[in-house]
Amino acid sequence: MKNPSQQITLIQEELLQHADPEKAEFLPKYFKAVPGGYGEGDRFIGVKVPFQRKVAQKHYRDLFLDELEALLTQEVHEYRLTALFMLVLKFEKAKSAEDRKTLLDFYLDHLDFVNNWDLVDSSAPKILGAYLYDQDKSLLYDFAQSGQLWKQRTAIISTQYFIKKGHFDDTLQLADLLLDHPHDLIHKAVGWMLREVGEKDFDTAYTFLEKCYKQMPRTMLRYTIEKFEPEIRMGFLKGLI
Asked: Which of 36, 155, 201, 210 would staple 144 via disulfide (CB 3.0–4.6 Å)?
């Protein structure tokens, strides 16, 4: 990891000014950054997300990628999340396909640091999903079958961008691949994306569920049907569909 520039030091100082010790004590439990947890080893200083976004908005234009790397590779969770907010802003404001590809490659090269659910959810749809929308999507299927939790969550959450554009096929195919996944973070992610499909196109989500809801983990099913009409929701929960 490169030494932080003065700009990165300034960003860290701004975040530290809004650090809350009580929140810093709570967050490791919330993000399972405890021995044996999926976020084991993560450190928190207790900065609220809206302030992280404010800092990202203030500084993203001024940072080169090597400086952003210095922030993204820090142990402190809020530094990494702020770095991802800035990377998303850079990607969204990129003026050329070449710039977008450079930013995508940077993101993919640093996925080891996108290692908790909020980091994935805040960046994957807006960078990887947005880039792959009109491109070959085989990378998402590679991620889904990688056996690596965060890559698998990245795969399904990236399709949120496709769903918003009315494209559901990849979400459904990836959901099918992840149907038997053992981790509840994937159950929640798949259920969330299927719920979003249902909000856009109820019939598509319903047809998918008819085929596989009985083998779905319960959490995945509950997330998927959360906004269905009560009688339909109960029909799925009772196995009567």
From this structure: 155
Q: Are 83 and 72 in contact (CB under 8 A)?
A: yes
* Rounded distance between C-alpha atoms, residue 207 and residue 68, angstroms: 44
Q: Residue 161: how many CA atoms within 13 Å on its side-chain side?
A: 21
Contacts 24+ apart (CB under 8 A), 169-173: 170/137, 170/140, 171/197, 172/197, 172/204, 172/208, 173/141
Phi/psi region, residue 148 (left: phi>0; alpha: psi -120 to 50; beta: rest), is: beta
Q: Please give the backbone phi and psi of residue 76, each rounded to the nearest 5 degrees, phi first.
A: -75, 125
pLDDT tens for the chain, 241 residues long, are 445 588 899 999 999 999 999 999 999 999 999 999 999 989 999 999 999 999 999 999 989 999 999 999 999 999 999 999 999 999 999 999 999 999 999 999 999 999 999 999 999 999 999 999 999 999 999 999 999 999 999 999 999 999 999 999 999 999 999 999 999 999 999 999 999 999 999 999 999 999 999 999 999 999 999 999 999 999 999 999 8
Cβ atoms within 10 Å of 107's Cβ, excluding its own? 22
Q: And the tokens for 104?
A: 């995508």
- Give the C-alpha separation, 167 to 145, whole Å: 21
Q: Report phi then psi at 96, rounded to 5.
A: -145, 160
* Assigned token pair, 14: 């701004």
How far apart, in Å, are the Cα atoms of 104 and each of 36, 72, 206? 31, 14, 34
